[in-house]
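It would be a great kindness if you could assist me with a short task in structural biology. Thank you for your consideration; the sequence and its tokens are set out here.
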Amino acid sequence: MPDDRPAAPSLDDPVLTALSESVGGPAGAHGSGHRWWTPVRVILAVTALFFVLGMVQKAPCYTSDWSNGEERFAKMCYSDMPYLYVGRGFAELSWPYDDDEQTRARYEVMEYPVGISYFAYGAAWITQAVHGFPDVVARGSSPVAELSGDVDIIQERSDYVAVSAVLLGAITLLGAWFLARTHRSRPWDAMLFAAAPVLVLNGLINWDLLAVTLVAGALYAWTRDRPLLTGIMIGLGTATKLYPLFLLGAILVICIRRREYAKFAIATGAAALSWLLANLPAMLTGWEEWKVFWSFNSERGADLGSIWLVLSQAGHTFDAATINDVSWVFFIGWCVAVLAVGLVAPETPRMAQLGFLIVAGFLLINKVYSPQYVLWLLPLAVLARPRWRDQLIWQAGEILYFAAVWWYLGGFLQPGAGDEPGFYWLAIALRLACELYLIGIVVRDILWPQFDVVREGRGHDGWPRRRAAQQEADASLWSEPVNR
């Protein structure tokens, strides 16, 4: 009779098994969990703790009101949020897609998808409500440069980051809940998300956690056999960041394998409709402003973290059009390769595995690979390969890059002779190498399913074989009967 209790981490993961020796060893066959501290509640508590640590990591910039240009790089506490509060008109509560000529003359258009713009605008409203709704009309008569130096606005700017952090913290808890409930017998896999170093370091650089939670929701909905909800999550995620759209490719592979084409049609239709509905307010109030996100990303050149930046700094210059063409050709070829792997695999791959491979391929050749983009992969990675060793190897490259990019921007890596910063190039290369390592592990798990720890118990509802074997050994050792 299969046991419906969740797999014990100290029996399931070799790293945790070894670490458990310092606190009494792995869980025994007759161990019982705490009545109140269920796995999901523990994961939510750890997520909250690590998110607070992320807020503490940004404290040096917060205490200096985000005004010390060198400190934000030296102490690696940079965030986009405070600078966009004034720079995109939120200090005046300007609608991100306002087509008013005066507003557009004062402020650049928000260059993010609508989900992030709506969230940033809503956080600005809450911030100004906390401050008693100051007179934004009077602010409109002052030059933008003066607003940036206004004492009241500087305080608002700091509070704006705090408000955004609290809201993102709540959203991240929802993402952790989704992940903890994706595989019924493996809730502890979500601990890899909750306690991820990259969540601490990168969570508050921008608003990417909005899309991360929607991706987690899509993974949860798919395992619950709810293609409509899956599509809605993907559509809303795509309205927040482009990359959740790629999950439809993972669903396509699965539906081809299972001949469940109706589910793919339902998910795709729901994604398209929810994306359109989310974008309509922006489209109707400022069509040209809404298009800025698409034109901005098409026209930008080689940027931070990308292999293109290394090549351009090494003397191999490429224009934006060339980078776009080569990147899309590579990505299309990558997607074809993922399709082939998914179709030839002995068993139908899991959505997290395929989604991880597709998004990782997009990032490898993308013209910009900002430090917070690692969050895009996080929920997919922890469910695709829920092993602490592999996750830490991958994230070690991200941690190295996190430090290197801020030191690079602060000018601390510039050689005395004025040459290009080779250490930053090395950090980019090592980051990509660690990502390729995890890609290789996931591909192996797909092609040889016996290595896939989630499938180890043949399905998502039974304990892994290793845990069952440990139970039998414990029972034999203590000569106690095993309940049937």
Observations:
- Residues 9-20+39-468 form one domain.
- Confidence is low (pLDDT under 50) at residues 458-484.
